[in-house]
């Protein structure tokens, strides 16, 4: 799940840039077209993903991850003092190609509202060189982002944000090729490492189980983002005054990243993004805290895994760091660090059970300012 929202942030920014340009041109045509050619985006991502060998994970791998997920449910229930019982959730050991296929469907559903608002902003997409170049750029960026993630995602909890059907449990994906390569590269003990990953992803499932309202809350935030963006794009390019006013609203914030998202963020859009960021910090921080707390007690090689993972993050190449900043994925890594610091401090000051309050109602979720000042959140919800 986290990777889905992190990548969508970069896609939102890129599509918004394209929509602004289209709004300025207002080209008329009777033929519609999509902002992103998802068939081509999937092909680009597939080239970056590379070969996965057999093309499908083995039945033995599937059954092994099902056992780890079951063990994780039990360990998490003990740590958080949750009711016992067996949870039914689809567990899928997948190849990179299978992960890509699933996520292209998810991203296409998530970006559908942006397709609609861009069409309204520009009248119609139009034809010719400008429209072709715009579609090519957005398609290439989408494919590059998905391809990059397909080689790095280890596990994912997918709750199908913006899915058409009600979802109660979500799905758990484990990308076997990436897990195996990480184990070899870092010299990790496979069983310990795979259970560690399962603990993190199952904790995400627990979060949504404890807060049934959470999926719709995330959908609401995204709808607010789209609606606000549509308002801003609606006046872009209709007059010189509107264009100047729009440019002032979307100027990059001081100290912002180099990502495209900072060039299409007005103050009200940033306010919505901060609410989304705060929620993701909580989700990731909570999962990391539970994963590490249990890992310390049940995994013999936990200290070594933690250290080698931290060292890997510090050793990213200059090119990769620039790519992460430009695409907006930098925010994803901030979520882990800021969220984990928040949850760890709350657990230290008031016990991990205190975080139960955050799952009761959206009004009790921490703000982004409270993520960086846990005592403030504790004082508000006490």
Structure annotation, total helices: 15
CATH-defined topology? Lysin
Shape annotation: globular
The overall number of domains is 1
Give the structural class: mainly alpha
Helix content: 55-70%
What is the CATH homologous superfamily assignment?
Answer: Zincin-like metallopeptidase, N-terminal domain
- Report the end-to-end length measured between terminal Cα atoms: 30 Å
| DSSP, total strands | 3
Instruction: Report strand %.
Output: under 5%
Order of helices and strands: HHHEHHEEHHHHHHHHHH
Low-pLDDT segments: 17-31, 123-130, 236-240, 252-260
The strand order across the widest sheet is 1-3-2
- Summed over residues and divided by their number, the pLDDT gives a mean of 78
Cα-atom Rg, whole angstroms?
Answer: 21 Å
CATH architecture: Up-down Bundle
The biggest beta sheet reads: 3 strands, mixed
- What is the CATH C-level name? Mainly Alpha
Written overview of the protein:
The protein has 382 residues and is mainly alpha-helical. It has a single domain (2-274), classed as Zincin-like metallopeptidase, N-terminal domain (Lysin), CATH 1.20.150. It has helices at residues 2-25, 38-49, 59-80, 96-122, 129-150, 176-186, 190-210, 214-234, 240-249, 267-298, 302-314, 318-327, 330-350, 368-371, 374-381; strands at 91-94, 155-158, 171-175. A 3-stranded mixed β-sheet has the order 1-3-2. α1 (2-25) runs antiparallel to α5 and α2 packs antiparallel against α4 (96-122).
Secondary structure elements and pairings:
Blueprint: H1 2-25, H2 38-49, H3 59-80, E1 91-94, H4 96-122, H5 129-150, E2 155-158, E3 171-175, H6 176-186, H7 190-210, H8 214-234, H9 240-249, H10 267-298, H11 302-314, H12 318-327, H13 330-350, H14 368-371, H15 374-381
